[in-house]
Amino acid sequence: MANPYEGYAKKKDFLVCIDSDGCAIDSMDIKHIRCFGPCMVEEWGLEEHREEILKRWNEINLYSMTRGINRFKGLAAILKEINEKITPVEDLDSLLTWLESADELSNAAVEKAAKEKNSICLEKALNWSKAVNQSISELPKEDVRPFDGVLEKISALHEFCDVAIVSSANYEAVKEEWTRFGLIEHVDIVLAQNAGSKKSCIEKLLTYGYDTDKVMMTGDAPGDMDAAKQNGVFYYPILVKHETESWANIMDAAEHLKSGTFAGEYQDGLIRKFVDNLS
Ligand SMILES: [Mg+2]
Predict the structure, then answer these.
(1) Phi, psi of 181 (to 5 degrees)
(2) Distances in whole angstroms, Cα of residue 158 to Cα of each of 14, 188, 222, 251
(3) pLDDT, tens digit (0-9, with 9 covering 90-100), for 230-266
C-alpha cells in the first residue's frame, strides 16, 4: 500500500485527530451485539447460556475500560470467565499462551499457531474470527451511520483545524463510510490499520510541525486516550451511550484548544467523565 502520508502538508496551526468506529461512526454496538458475541456463542456451542454470555461480551468489549480491545484478547477474557463460572473450555491454555507470546494478533497468525500446536481452541478462535468478518460484511450498510451531528461538527472544526482520521479499522471500510456520508470532504488525511498504531500515527503527524498543545485526539476507547497521552496531546472523549451529547459539546473543546485553556481542569474533567462512564 502507498505511503498514507504522501502529499500531506500542515495547513493550519491546529490538528484534530478523529477515531472512526464507535467515535464518528456508530458501528461498535452493532458489530459486537450482532456479530462478535453471537458468533462466539455459536462456535463454542453455548446456546444454553446465550443471554448471560452476550451480556458479559458486551460489557467487556463495549461498556468497560476494556472497550475496544483486540478481538482475540476479548475472546480470551470471556472464555476464561466461561471456563471458571459456566463450563470447561477445551484447550483454553493454548489460546492464553499464544496471546502472551504472539507478535501479531491476526487471523493469519492464529491460523499458523493453530497448525503448529495442533490446537482445537486456536482453531475455533480462527473459525470464529472468520465468521465474525463474514457476518460484519453482511450487515446492512444503512445500519452503520455516523452519530448525529458528526458532519456538522467536523466541518466546523475543519475551518480552523487540520483533520486526520486516526483509526485501527480497515482502510477501505473507513474510507467508504466517511465518503458515503460526505465526511471525507472535511478530512485532510486518512490513517487506518495500514498506517500502524494510533500512537505512532499521532507521533508522525506531530513531525509536520504542530505544537502538542494545539492537537486533540477524539475517540471512544481507552486506547485512544492512551495514544493521546503518550504523545502529550489533548484527549476529547466521545462517551458511549452519550455519543450525540459528546459531539454536541465538541466545539467547547475546540474553544479551549484555541484559547490555550485545555490543559488542567478542563482536560481532567473530561477524562474523569470518560473513565466514570466505563466503570
Ligand atoms: Mg473507536
Answers:
(1) -105, 15
(2) 9, 9, 25, 11
(3) 999 999 999 999 999 999 999 999 999 999 999 999 9
- 120 CA distance to ligand 1 centroid (A)? 31
Distance 117 CA to ligand 1 centre (A): 33
Q: Give residue-wise pLDDT tens across range 150-196.
A: 999 999 999 999 999 999 888 988 999 999 999 999 999 999 988 98
All domains of the chain, ordered by start, with CATH? 14-26+147-277 (3.40.50.1000), 28-137 (no CATH)
CA–centroid distance, 237 to ligand 1, in Å, is 10
How far apart are the C-alpha atoms of 279 and 275, rounded to whole Å?
6
Distance from the alpha carbon of residue 119 to the mean position of ligand 1, in angstroms:
31
pTM of the model: 0.91
CB–CB of 166/202 below 8 Å? yes
Please tell me the distance between residue 49's alpha carbon and the centre of ligand 1 in angstroms.
Answer: 28
CA of 53 to the centre of ligand 1 (A): 23
